[in-house]
Design goal:
Aminopeptidase, 377 residues, alpha+beta, 2 domains, 31% helix, 9-stranded mixed β-sheet
């Protein structure tokens, strides 16, 4: 039985832990303790070393009591800024907010708490369940860096549920985009801006000219392009010889992202050459697009779990990335499910006790479901 008081206490205590991306040590220690209490052996990997963080991903297995393919359940340990010294406030109407100076941390403490409560209730009530694999990742917010570094040979599951979607309980994202972050570094030539400006090669001017040729915002119905930061120059009286431009591309079609990136490279390189400058580009595909068939068992099982909990399933596409983008690259079909977080990535983030309970109940239903994996059919 899901215990609302225990779930709420767990959630509030998790939100109090400082756990910015790449600084999840305290959260990892707390979750390891909780999983150990449930009899799960926890393995921490070296993702922290690979990403210069303080902790690695946590992986644990609860052996099944009935036959059936294993299922993977996942949430991330990091929180977006401002994330330090969070103070959850529980209100009389059942909502839970921060004190307004930080995020609440329901992204993703609500998912972590729901997984822990579902596991605890299964153990308390001796509920039959298939083998359950648990993965708590680091650094999900900066383009799923933790799950990117994980060794998937440890995982036996072919299907996963990631508790990391904002909105009404029952929502689930079956498709997500490729997200490519890029950096252009432009090298010009410095000179005195007052005495000899014609001797310089203005790196910021190169960047401005290249950017002016781009179609920013919505490139098409399923693709966006954004230049997010520009950095350059050292003084107002010096022609800047260096400029760094950073941005991202998102699209539901991976090939489109590659095409847009190639176009960017061409425009920046040709513009730099016309000024007598040089240009270097680095890119990182933190997420790769995927779409799950509507009749896939991972969706049908979720629909059944929602119905058993009195919740209507609502399928949607998301234009954000998650750990599922990484799972899909390793043969794991994942569904990102709503986990009782609203207003995420803002100081107005909130959740409610009633929604937390619904998510924990749905998670328990998924963990004890008898719906077969597609390879068993």
């Amino acid at each position: 039985m899901i215990r609302t008081d225990r779930l709420t206490d767990t959630f509030i205590s998790l939100t109090a832990i400082d756990c910015p991306s790449f600084g999840e040590r305290a959260m990892a220690d707390r979750l390891t303790t909780e999983l150990n209490k449930l009899g799960l052996c926890v393995e921490e990997d070296d993702a922290g070393i690979k990403t210069n963080g303080t902790a690695g991903n946590l992986f644990a297995v609860l052996p099944g009591t009935v036959d059936g393919e294993p299922l993977l359940f996942s949430g991330h340990m990091d929180t977006v800024q401002p994330a330090m010294h969070k103070k959850a406030q529980k209100h009389s109407d059942g909502t839970i907010t921060s004190d307004g100076t930080t995020v609440l941390g329901a992204d993703d403490a609500a998912g972590l708490a729901a997984i822990l409560e579902a596991l605890t209730s299964i153990k308390d009530d001796a509920l039959p369940h298939r083998t359950l694999e648990i993965l708590f990742t680091i650094a999900e917010e900066p383009y799923a860096r933790g799950s990117e570094a994980f060794d998937y040979s440890k995982v036996k599951s072919h299907e996963a549920y990631v508790l990391d979607l904002a909105g009404t309980v029952g929502r689930a994202a079956y498709a997500a985009p490729t997200i490519c972050s890029f950096t252009f570094e432009i090298f010009g030539k410095s000179s005195h801006a007052g005495f000899a400006p014609e001797e310089g090669v203005h790196a910021i001017a190169v960047a401005a000219q290249a950017i002016s040729q781009l179609k920013m915002g919505r490139v098409d119905d399923e693709t966006t392009l954004n230049i997010g930061t520009i950095e350059g120059g050292s003084a107002t009286n010096i022609v800047p010889d260096h400029c760094i431009v950073k941005g991202e591309i998102r699209s539901y079609t991976h090939a489109t992202v590659e095409r847009v990136l190639e176009s960017l490279v061409s425009k920046f390189n040709s513009t730099a050459a016309s000024y007598g400058a040089t240009c270097q580009m680095n890119s990182h595909f933190g997420c790769r697009a995927y779409e799950i068939p509507r009749q896939h068992p991972v969706i049908l099982r979720y629909e059944e779990a929602c119905a058993n909990t009195g919740v209507s399933m609502q399928l949607c596409k998301t234009f954000g990335g998650s750990d599922v983008n990484q799972f899909e690259q390793h043969g794991i079909t994942g569904l990102v499910i709503a986990n009782a977080m609203f207003g995420a990535h803002s100081c107005k983030e909130y959740t409610s006790v009633a929604d937390l309970k619904k998510v924990a109940e749905i998670t328990q239903q998924l963990m004890t479901s008898k719906t077969k994996h597609f390879e068993e059919d």
